[in-house]
Structures are given as structure tokens and as C-alpha cells.
Amino acid sequence: MAKSVLIVDDESYIVTSLSFVMKNAGFETGSAGDGEEALEKVAAMVPDLVILDVMMPKKDGFEVCKEIRANPEWKSVRIMMLTAKGRDSEREKGLALGADEYLTKPFSTRDILARVQEMLAVDRVAS
Amino acid sequence: MLQGWVIVATAVLYLCVLFAIAYWGDRRADQNRSIISNPYIYALSIAVYCTSWTFYGSVGRAASNGVGFLPIYLGPTLTFILGWFLLRKMIRISKVNRITSIADFIASRYGKSAMLSGLVTIIAVVGIMPYISLQLKAVSTSFTMLMQYPWVAPISSGSQGVSIFADTALYVAIFLGMFAILFGTRHIDASEHHEGMVLAVAFESVVKLLAFLAVGIFVTFGMYDGFGDIFEKARASEELASHFTIEGSGGYTSWVTLTLLSMAAIIFLPRQFQVAIVECVNEQHLKKAIWLVPLYLFLINIFVLPIAFGGLLRFPDGTVHADTFVLTLPMAENQEALALFAFIGGLSAATAMIIVATVALSTMVSNDLVMPVLLRINKLHLSERADLSGLILTIRRCTIAFLLLLGYVYVRLIGDSYALVSIGLVSFAAAAQFAPPILAGMYWKGGTRSGAFAGLAAGFIVWAYTLLIPSFARSGWIPESFLADGPFGIELLKPYSLFGLPGLDPISHALFWTLFFNVGLFVLVSLWTTRSVIERSQANQFVDVFRKTSEGHRVWRGNAAVGEIKQLVARFVGEVRMRDAFERYEVSVGRRLANEDLADAGIVAYGERQLAGAIGAASARIMIASVVREEVHDIDEMMEMLDEASQVIEYSRRLEQKSRELQIATDDLKAANKRLKELDRLKDGFISTVSHELRTPLTSIRSFAEIIFDNPEMPDQQRSEFVDIIVKESERLTRLIDDILDIAKMEAGEIDWQLRVMDPKPIIQAALNATSGPFQKDDRKIRLETDIAEALPQVNVDSDRLTQVIVNLISNAVKFCDREDGVVSVSAQHKDGMLVVRVTDNGIGIAPEDHAKVFQRFQQVGNTLTEKPKGTGLGLPICVEIVKYFGGTIGVESALGEGATFWFSIPEAKEA
Which of A14, A55, A85 sits opposite B703 (nearest CB)? Predict the structure, then answer.
């Protein structure tokens, strides 16, 4: 069974590009354009991994991350945060809130794919 | 038969002996074999306290008041036993500062004030005058009585009614005056001890004690069978029984008052200060004096009651004045030799007092009153006179003559209206006025010159009003009604019950009010006024006299040669003493001083102290100041220089000013720092936001480039879609960079504005043309409505920039207008001397709380419900900068759901 990845970003081009890359690698994908939609999608599909932008309307990535982690049913959901603000303090904050990975824009699609495969493979071995 | 010439001869002989003793004492002192340097002489000299007042008067008081005479001797005993530490401190202070008199002491403490020393001198002279007259009266009375030997005269007629030339008191005054002049003013330099005088006074103390004891023993054991017999007989007499109790002797108030008064008098009477403090050669002598003085007082009082009772029993009809019992009892018993001895005893008591009092007072008058005044009178050119010691001696001799004359006048005026004791107490009360400034001055640094002056002046005035003037009234010199009804009949001002304070005897009453005003004003004025530098340093030197071993630091500004200082000192103390003094100084500092050397602070201070020993601190300071500064003609100017207070106040004022300025500068710096921090924070936020805005399109560009590269086999349609995204995002990036550069340049003032006065219509048209693109697109139906007025005002603008503003506003309107049925309207009007351009859309509008926000950088308040706005977030901020530069304003009118109108106005250009 294919692993699923939810891509959350308010920049539609970024969603488009990441969806293409993930689908190409054999993942199931879903997408959301803001924080609230992201939580709805998480509830609906319970993805294996969420690629989560920080600066979004309505609810920012940190809040979404916190809410996912607050729900025990979504314990297995991996979270990879993306941000255009590359400061260490932001990174610390994301990791402290329970994110598994924290990447800075602009990223390389090759890197991000490798990271996603790595995270989900580790998961596979563990289970 | 005791003949007149025998009495006179004995008296003269006695005085010659005194001279011889004094001469011997001075010789020994000159040979450095001081004979007075032992505690016994010291204690005996302090017994100058016992004057003829004691000798005759205490018997008089005992005869009328019984044990009421005791407080006068209890007080000094208490002072010596309990207050020895005060004496020790006063002695130490006086040695360190070379104090010459009580006036000098007070003036020195409060900043060497000439005015203060003058006031103390006046108080002392006026206050002691009754006391001196008392001695004259005692001597003349006793002489008159004795001349009539063996007939015991009835109550003495006094001097009133007698012509001046027949008045014994006048001759006594002249005789004692000459004696005091010869005796007390042989040479000057008051602080180098009048050893001869002290020795003579000690001798007199022995004589009067022996004489009194002799009479006492004769009365007690000759006329009666010892103390038991005489007291028993007295108790048997009803009249005398009350004499054994305090109630019978004036009551407790009177006792307390008299004890306090005499506690003060033993130190603060000028002559007591002279012998106990100034003439004290060794502080250690005080240790024995603590019990020797009380012992002397005890001895001289043993026979007071027996003699009083003896007299009262012997002359029961009251025809003989009790003040004369010491003399009249031996006379009545035909004891020729004893009567003569008693007379000599009384004479010795009187002369001792007069010698010491006049020496002390004449020193004060010359040093603290006359010299400072003379030195201030420039016409006299005193500071240029070579030898002033002659002048000083003349002043002192005149002072002594004047004092005795004054005393005589007082005797004539007051006559017999007062008993001896009461006259003495008037003087005691005057001396008590010195207690507050001296005692407080030794322990409280806060006391100021003004405070001491105010207190002393008030105490003196009240003293004169409640004691001195009434004494004139009682003698009939002033109407009696002054006492009975107060001046002008004002009850509250009655001298014996001032402000309605009744029920006290005159002395207690006066003591209460004088000290009330003295202490009260001293404390209040001291707290109210500030101390000058010299007051501070003197206060420290007095209060901390036991703490400081060194001279303390002295500040001296000015310049004088060593020779000048020496010359000055020599003029007052003589060449020989000056040379001795400066040789000692050279030894102590370990170097030779050349006359042309510049005098340093130490030498100036040393010279000043040498001078102070001769002419007092206040005068010395004036003299020193006159040589240390050239050509000082104006004494006020000189005094100003002496008092560094004004300068220090100026310094401290400037310091305060500086510190205020510093405080302001600090506050400014803090504020500036805060602004900088805020700016830094803003700049940080700006950079962070810019970085975010740049990274976003970059991410898309990079991602799609990689995707196209990694997927060569992707369908062409998809490929061209992705390439299109790359192009769009590159354009977005370019716009962003342009805007950022624009706004940065505007802020830095680096824009090259091409301002020209022009018609705005073509500019508006150009802007409309540039934005025509969106309106022609098919997928979005947006209508453009324009309302451009025919006549628009000329404006002074940069045409490209104005175009940019209008384009930005139209682009925004297009972006935010209704998606289904978009309408954008542009209007331009001439209104109130302004060009007003309005761009309206029919979009979702902007909530009023967000109106200000839209003009800030990167703050897009768009229709975020549907999609993210596509602007750079810098368009409106750029418009703000441009319109501001044209002198106009920009704003927005909108409410949620009702579209938005962005407008700007630019003032009409003035026709050149």
C-alpha cells in the first residue's frame, strides 16, 4: 500500500511542484492552501506525512503542527515543516512543537524527496 | 584703737605683697621654672569664684534665707564632679586654637566671626558690670565700717546722698583701677599665661579662706561653745528655725535655678573662663581640681551658718546689716587684729575678682571689640603701623578704667536697693547666656554663626529687660510702675512676669525666658541657615578635638612671603617672641625658612595662631588676610575673600547645573538608544520579510526547473505549463526587487526627482493606458469608468512617479474588485486648490481597523478567504512616499463588503 503525503502551502505553485514530485515517486498525495483546510485533510486521509508551510493565512504551520500532535490518533503522522524564514529560533520552535523535520525555502525537490523517502522508510522498518 | 592710717597702710602693704608675688611668678615663668604648674595653684586660682560676695554676702543670704546660700556652691561642685569632661574638652580646644577669652572661644567656634566676638564682649561687659560694682561696694562698705571701729554702725547708709568726692566707693574704684592696670597690662600675649597673676590670685584665695575660717572659729568657739551650741541657740529662736529647711530658703524652684546658674557661672563667667580654661597650663591638673575645688568651697562654707546665727543672736534688733557680720562680729567683740584680718580677707576676695575680671574683659574688649573695628577703619592705616602692642596696651588700660568707672556708676545708681547676692546673680544670669553656644558648639556641628548670634542677642535682650532694667527701676532711676504694671501699663510685658508667667522669683523667671529664647533661636536659626566653609572647618576642629592629632587640612589661597608673615607677627608680639616662635616652627617642620620664600598654608596658619594668641582669632584673621593679599583697601572685599562659602556655593551650584545637564543628556541618550533599537527591530523585521518574499518565488522557480530537468519525458503541454510558471515567478521576483530598491532609495533620499510644474491630465491618461491590459482580458469582466474634470490644476511633480502612483492604485483596484462583475472607477477633480484623484473598486472592502495597515510594508489585507493577493506588498508604501514628496496626502475610504476608494491629493502649483 502506497504511503500518503499531504502537501500544505498557500503558494499554489509550490503545491503543484511538490505534488508532481511526490506522485512521480509513487506516493499518494493530498493538498491544502491554508491551516484550517490542512487540519480537515489530515482528519480525512490521516496521511503518513505532512509537508507543512509555516506562513499561511488563518492558521499558521506552528498551530497546525501543535494540533496534529495534540491528537493521539495522529501519533504516527510525520511532519516536515517548510519555511521561508530560515532563522534558528524558528527551527527550534518547529522542532519543539513536534515537527520531525524542518527545511528552509528555497529547497531542492531532490533533497525534499530524499528526506521524505528516508523518513517513511525508517518508519517502515520500525513497524 | 584701730586708726584709719593703719587700715590704709595694711591694705596698701597687702597689695604690695601681691605685686611682689606676681612679679616673682612672672620671673619664674620667664626662667621656665613655672611655679604655678601644679594642680593646687590651679584649683586655688579657680577659687577666684569666691569673691567678696562670698566673703560677706553668703553670710547675709544665710541670715535671711538660711541654707539658701548653698546652691551657689553646690552648682560649681556639681560642675567639677559631673562636668569635668566638658572642662577637659574646652581646655583642649582652647590649647589647640590658642583661645584668649570666652568671646574668642565662641567666635572661633562659629567661623572666627568678628561680629559674634563683639557681641559676646558686649554681653560680658554689661553683664559683669554689676558684679564689679558689687566688689567696689563691698570694699568701700567694709572700709567705712572698719574706720568707725570700735563703734558698730547701724545699717550702712550707702553712697546715695553723699557727694561724689566724699564717696569712699569712688576712691576704692580709682585705687583698684590703678592696681588692676598696673597689674594686668604689663605685657601682652594673653595666651602665654599670666603666671604672676594666677599665682597672686591663688595666694588671695588662701588669704580669704584663712580670714574667713579665723572669723568662723572665733565666732563658733570663742563666742559660743562649738557648732552644737550655736545651732541649738538658733533653733531655740522661733525666727531662725525656718533657716534649716529648703522651704524656708526660697523654695525648690529657687534652689534648682540657683544651682543651675552657679553650675554655669563657674565656667562661663569671663574671669572663671580665664583661670579655668585660658590660664590652665596642664590638662592633667584638672584631675585633682575635680575634688580640690569642691573641697575649697566646702571649707569656705563651713562657718557661714554659725557666723550668720552668731550675728543674728548678737545683733537681735536688726540694726546691723547681715552682709557685714564677718566684719562686725569681731569688731563688736573688740578683736582688733581679727577685724583687720577679716577686712583684708574681704579685700583680697574683691581684688582677686577685679584683677581677673578686668584682665579677661580688657583682653576681650581690645581683641574682640576695639581692634576689629580699628582694623576696619582704613584711615587709621593700622595695618601699616610698625608696632601695635603699645596701642593694644593702651586700649586695655582704658578698658579697665572704663569698667571700674562703669561699676562705680552702677553702685551710685543702684545703691542699697539690692543685697549683695542678688546683684551677683544678675551677672550669673548674663554669663549663663554663653552656655548654649559653647556647649552645643562642642558637640553639635550643625550650630551656625547666625544661630549663635541670634540666640545670644535674644538671650541678652531678655536678660537686660528682665533683670538689668528692673534693677534700675528698683533703685528709683526708672519709675516703679515699670515693674508693677509693665511698660505703658502692658501687663504681658511686666519684666518680672513676662508673657504672663507669674509665680517665679525674678532670677528663675529671667533664667527661664533668657534660655528659652537663647536656645530656641540658636537651634531654629542654626537649622534654617547653612554653614560657610570656615564655620564647617571650625565646627569640626571643636567637636572632633580629641580625634584630630594633626592641624587638619587648611585651604589657603593667596600669596605672601615668609618675611611678611614674620613682620606682621613681630608687630603684635615683639621681635624676640616672633623669632622664638618661628625658630620652633622651623625645628618642627625640619627646614629653614628664607624671608623671601612664598609662605605655604602651614606657615600662614602658624602665623595666624601666633597672632591669635595676642589679639584673638577674629582680629588675627583680618590681619593675616591683609598681608596675604596685596592692596586690600575695602574691608568688605577682604571679608568676602575670607569667607569661601560664596565660592563653594557657586561651585556646587555649577555642579548641580552640570549634573542636571548630564541627567538630561542621559535621558536623551536613552531615548535615542530606544529609537535606534526600535529602528533596528524594524530593519530586522524588514529584512526578514524581504527575505521571505524573495524566497517564495525562488522556491517555485527552482522546483520547476528541477522537475523539467529530472523528467525529460514529460508531456510537452505540461512542460510548457511549468515553464510558464517559471517565467511568471521570475517576473514577480523582478517586480519585488524593483520595489524594494525603489523604497530603499526613497528612504535614503537617493531618488533623482524630476520635478516640473505641469498639467496632470496627460499623466493620468498615460497611467490609464498602461493599465488597460487587465480590462481587455476576457476571463475577467472588469469595467473601467473614468470621470476626469475638464479643468485640473497645475501640479509640481515628477511625471514618471505620479504615473507610478496612479498605476499602483489602479492595479490594486483591479486585483481586489468583484470577481464576477468588477468595476473600477477613476476620477480626477480640482477641489479647494488641490488635485484630487480617487480610484474606487467594488471589491470586498477593508475593515476600518485595517486602513492604516494597508499603507505599511508587506501588509496586504486582501481577500485572503479565496486566494493570496499577488502584490509585492510594497505598492502602497511606495505611493505614500511619492505623494508625501509632492506635498500631498494619501488615504483610503472603505468598509467591509462595500468596496474601497483610495485617493490622494496634491496641492496646486503656485504660478511662478
Answer: A14
Select the residue of B695, B710, B864 nearest A105 (Cβ to Cβ). B695
Q: Are residues B683 and B803 in the same domain?
A: no
Residue ranges making up the domain that contains B639: 560-643
* A87 neighbourhood in chain B, CB within 8 Å: 688
How many CA within 13 A on the CB side of residue B406?
A: 17
Residue B644: band (very low, low, confident or very high) from pLDDT cuts 50, 70, 90: low
- Top residue of A109, A110, A112 to mutate, by most chain B CBs within 10 Å, is A109
Residues whose CB falls within 8 Å of the CB of residue B380, separated by 6 or more in sequence, listed in order: B374
Q: For residues B442 and B89, give the distance between their C-alpha atoms in angstroms, rounded to a whole number.
A: 8
For residues B856 and B784, membership in a common domain is answered with: yes
Complex ipTM over 0.85? yes
* B638, B699: one domain: no
Please name every residue paired with B824 in a beta bridge, in sequence order, or none if there are none. Answer: B784, B841
Q: What is the CATH number that goes with domain A4-122? A: 3.40.50.2300
- What sign for the dihedral angle of Cα B398, B404, B407, B413? negative
In a domain, B520, yes or no: no
Strand partners, B891: B903
> Could you tell me if B769 and B808 are in contact, meaning their C-beta atoms sit under 8 angstroms apart?
no
Do B699 and A105 count as a contact with CB atoms less than 8 A apart?
yes
A106, closest residue in chain B (CA to CA) = B699
pLDDT digits (tens, 9 = 90+) for B542-582: 777 776 544 444 444 456 777 777 877 777 777 777 888 88
B→A interface, C-beta within 8 Å: 688, 691-693, 695-696, 698-704, 706-707, 710-711, 725, 729, 864, 867-868
